[in-house]
Design goal:
The complex is a heterotrimer. Chain A is an all-alpha fold. Chain A is 67% helix and 0% strand. The longest helix of chain A has 28 residues. The chains are: A mainly alpha, B alpha/beta, C mainly alpha.
């Protein structure tokens, strides 16, 4: 399994153990090669369990169905929800499913396992390797079947656009892609920040449950929430934006520069998360700042 | 009341679904499933008297754990009869379960996050142990197993050996007359293994419990069990004392030598018997059992030998031979 | 006498373990509270200054706070536990003891709820201090009836969860079946909206099944929904009947499942 590493001639990223990880990530070929080796192994394992793909897809379809029925129930009693029509909210639902697909495929199997690694001491093995710990922990394991959720989510959004009789322009699609990418980065940053708490609260084994609970708030557009909840989901834990902004880009609600603003927010979130990670790792390894 | 444990023609057959690989195979298995029979236990018959310590020996998959589970009432036999302290285990109900203790090595019943004391209290309630008896028995078990320091620590902080000792204590609070142990010393360090063996011997001496244990370790058998049941591929190959088994199937003896000066190669020894190992000045020869004494005399006469002893072959070899070749009658 | 001692020991054990995991439990409570909170938020927006299906904003607030409490008092998760026990081999030592494993599950349930429902109750009281909308009128008679309905609902949900968990004797997808049940109960048990807001056809289907008795009925009682004496009696009768049905299903699953376990092992 470490044959990839033995082929490395490249320089290591951070020093193992107590060295301070860089604020910016230089990503040399070596990191990709290591990850690729892990992913190949991962894929080989997962392909043995093809039944998991069927089960996973069925599960996602079931949850999408209940979400659509929920929306249908709300729209039995109203024409617009926070100014959004039914199919516009379905577009947002598609974006929501796309993002949860990324979460299930990449984040939960990777950085979501950080608490367990800290408790078991497995993290020490990671720290001894010549790779950036954050990158490694985040991406070494994928649940590839869950990428199907991404496809299903985008498909749902596309279908909803069809029902709206709206074909997004190239600019809108570009804005959507940018906003979606920014949303993924923000969600990633939130996970890193949350999981870093595992270094302080080692005994809490279900930190990811906190994210799941709060992320439910991203199912509906920001404007659908009354004051107090809007404060919670928009300003306190800014998850509602991750679905509202990309969906708005797709349905033409978004101004041209909002997507760029979203990208800026994503960059800031990423930097912030990295700072939190560094602080947490410093505390863990006992090195002084 | 005759035997504590009686098994007659005990058999257990599992029907296992045969699944072909690939998607087509999976679909086929769904529509028209095929089965094959796995005979885990075949026609096993034995009697165990109260107060005996008996060891079940056999390679993995031999049927030891399956037999144990049938004795404990977790599985019911396909054919045959089994009776434990007068009960049919499968239908015994709570009255039967009060008379046994089952300790499975890898699935521990100690509450992980709390001190072992809490599990003991829980068992006291489950088995309806009167207060005075509970205190007395707990004191005895703590003393015999040397559990004094660990009683207040959460189980997750204990070493494997300490945990196993606590498992045993928890299992014996209700003084069951029958004790089933599945691999009790597995994974423990030597000190812990010896402590457990010592404890089981003492406990049996004091309370006359019947102990049935499965094990891979020879030392468990030689130190504890008066009697050995060897199982391989579901069949009972041997039932009796270990020494008798060794005598019956070990056709050879080993002569261990410490050589004096002058014999630097093994060739000189080859004429006396098969040279198993030679690292000057130590050497080991293997000779047929009935020739051992005579060959030793010839060796002493012919070569400069500082020390000589005649040994049985290692028990592992004997057992392995029993597994692979069965136990034939002496020629 | 012995049963009191047994349950005392079991509950004490479960309580102490929960004490070790109290931080994790807080997160589970937050998770359990999020769904009703979000639903409340959406209905709040939809209701605006008027009413939806007879529910104004204050009515929705009362409904969903009551739902939070009743859910915590009636919830059961034994399907996940049992699934783990059966497939992880932890059922073996439990079966070798003279105690039916269900008792351990019940004790665990009670210990957890004491903590979680207690928390929700305290939160509700605090919120009621500053938010008049969520206050309930002081009606001891109604509360006594609600307590009975909650008890019956909790018992039924326990047997539903336990029976579904027993399916692990036959399939690896027992938890998936429980999730399916959860998806249906989202609508039919009144989790996403009061049953009165469902399309009439759906409401009728719900009335034929056990779902309303899980949550909606106790919640309606607690929030002061009007029931004539005959309707009340009919609903309590429905609870008893469905409880009996699920107890029957549990007994069937247990005896058959144990038989299968004794045949194929675990």
């Amino acid at each position: 399994m470490w044959s990839a590493e033995s082929q490395l001639g490249a320089e290591p990223l951070g020093k193992p153990g107590g060295g301070k990880p860089a604020l910016t990530l230089r990503i040399p070929h070596s990191a990709f090669r290591i990850l690729a080796a892990f992913w190949r192994l991962n894929l080989a394992e997962e392909l043995q369990y093809r039944a998991n793909l069927v089960a996973s897809v069925l599960g996602t379809l079931f949850y999408m169905a209940t979400a659509l029925l929920t929306l249908a129930l709300f729209f039995q009693h109203t024409v617009r929800l926070g100014g959004w029509g039914y199919w516009e909210v379905v577009v947002l639902l598609g974006v929501f499913n796309t993002l949860t697909g990324v979460i299930e495929a990449v984040l939960r199997p990777g950085i979501g396992r950080l608490a367990a690694e800290v408790r078991s001491g497995g993290l020490d093995l990671v720290l001894a390797k010549p790779v950036d710990a954050q990158g490694f922990v985040s991406f070494r394991r994928l649940d590839i079947w869950r990428f199907a959720d991404v496809v299903l989510g985008l498909g749902l959004a596309g279908y909803a656009l069809l029902r709206l009789d709206r074909v997004p322009s190239v600019a809108q699609l570009a804005a959507f892609a940018l906003a979606l990418g920014a949303a993924v980065v923000v969600v990633y940053a939130l996970w890193v920040g949350l999981m870093s708490l595992a270094f302080w609260f080692v005994s809490v084994e279900n930190l990811s449950v906190l994210f799941d609970a709060l992320y439910e708030g991203a199912r509906y557009p920001v404007s659908a929430y009354p004051g107090a909840l809007r404060f919670l989901f928009v300003y306190l834990i800014p998850i509602a934006w991750t679905t509202t902004v990309p969906a708005s880009a797709l349905t033409g609600r978004l101004g041209p520069w909002s997507a760029v603003a979203a990208a800026a927010v994503a960059a800031a979130a990423f930097v912030l998360a990295r700072l939190v990670w560094r602080a947490a790792l410093r505390r863990y390894t006992g090195a002084s700042g | 009341m005759s035997s504590a444990i009686a098994a007659d023609g005990l058999s257990k057959t599992f029907r296992v679904k045969v699944r072909d690989s690939g998607v087509a195979g999976a679909l086929r298995a769904l529509v028209r499933p095929r089965y094959r029979d796995v005979h885990a236990v075949r026609d096993v018959t034995f009697r165990i008297d109260p107060g005996e310590i008996v060891a079940f020996l056999g390679p993995n998959g031999a049927g030891k754990t399956t037999t144990l589970k049938m004795l404990a009432g977790l599985l019911y036999p396909t054919t045959g009869r089994v009776e434990v302290t007068g009960f049919v285990p499968w239908t015994g109900g709570p009255d039967f379960k009060r008379r046994i203790a089952l300790v499975l090595g890898n699935r521990q019943q100690l509450v992980w996050d709390l001190p072992p004391e809490e599990t003991f209290q829980l068992n006291r309630a489950i088995y309806d142990i009167p207060d005075a008896a509970y205190r007395e028995r707990l004191a005895e078990l703590v003393a015999l197993l040397e559990l004094g320091d660990v009683m207040q620590k959460p189980v997750r902080q204990l070493s494997l050996g300490e945990r196993m000792k606590c498992e045993l204590a928890a299992a014996l609070l209700h003084h069951p007359p029958i004790l089933f142990l599945d691999e009790p010393t597995l994974g423990l360090d030597v000190t812990a293994q010896e402590a457990i063996r010592r404890f089981l011997t003492q406990y049996r001496e004091r309370h006359g419990a019947t102990v049935l244990l499965t094990s891979h370790y020879m030392q468990d058998v030689t130190a504890l069990a008066s009697r050995v049941l060897i199982i391989n591929r579901g069949r009972l190959l041997y039932d009796g004392a270990l020494a008798a088994l060794v005598a019956r199937i070990a056709r050879t003896k080993r002569i261990e030598l410490v050589l004096g000066d002058g014999v630097t190669t093994g060739e000189a020894l080859a004429t006396f018997g098969a040279v198993k190992s030679f690292r000057f000045p130590n050497a080991v020869l293997e000779v047929p059992r009935d020739e051992a004494a005579a060959t030793s005399a010839r060796l002493l006469a012919a070569l400069p030998i500082a020390d000589l002893s005649i040994q049985d072959p290692p028990i592992e070899d004997v057992i392995r031979q029993a597994f692979t070749h069965g136990i034939e009658e002496d020629a | 006498m012995t049963w009191r001692r047994r349950y005392g020991a079991l509950i004490r054990n479960a309580w102490l373990v929960d004490l070790q995991y109290r931080a994790s439990i807080v997160l589970w409570i937050i998770w359990g509270v999020m769904e009703p909170t979000i639903a409340l938020g959406i209905w709040w927006t939809i209701a605006g200054d008027g009413a939806v299906g007879g529910y104004a904003r204050a009515d929705f607030a009362r409904y969903f706070f009551a739902l939070m409490l009743v859910n915590q008092l009636t919830i059961a998760w034994d399907s996940w536990y049992l699934d783990g026990w059966i497939r992880g081999g932890e059922l073996n030592y439990r079966l070798a003891r003279p105690l039916h494993p269900a008792h351990e599950a019940v004790a665990e349930n009670l210990a957890y709820k004491a903590r979680s429902a207690g928390t929700i109750l305290v939160v509700w009281l605090l919120v009621a201090l500053v938010w008049p909308a969520v206050r309930l009128p002081l009606e001891p008679g109604r509360w006594a009836l609600t307590a009975l309905a909650v008890l019956l609902a909790a018992a039924m949900r326990f047997f539903i969860s336990f029976t579904t968990g027993l399916l692990a004797f036959w399939t690896t997808r027992a938890t998936a079946i429980m999730e399916l049940h959860g998806g249906v109960s989202l609508f039919l048990a009144g989790r996403i909206a009061p049953l009165a807001l469902l399309p009439p056809v759906v409401g009728n289907v719900a009335g034929l099944l056990w779902f309303p008795y899980m949550l909606a009925f106790p919640v309606e009682l607690l929030t002061g929904a009007a029931h004539g004496p005959r309707a009340l009696l009919a609903r309590f009768a429905g609870q008893v009947v469905w409880l009996a049905v699920w107890v029957g299903a549990y007994r069937l699953a247990w005896s058959r499942g144990l038989r299968r376990y004794g045949a194929v092992g675990g």
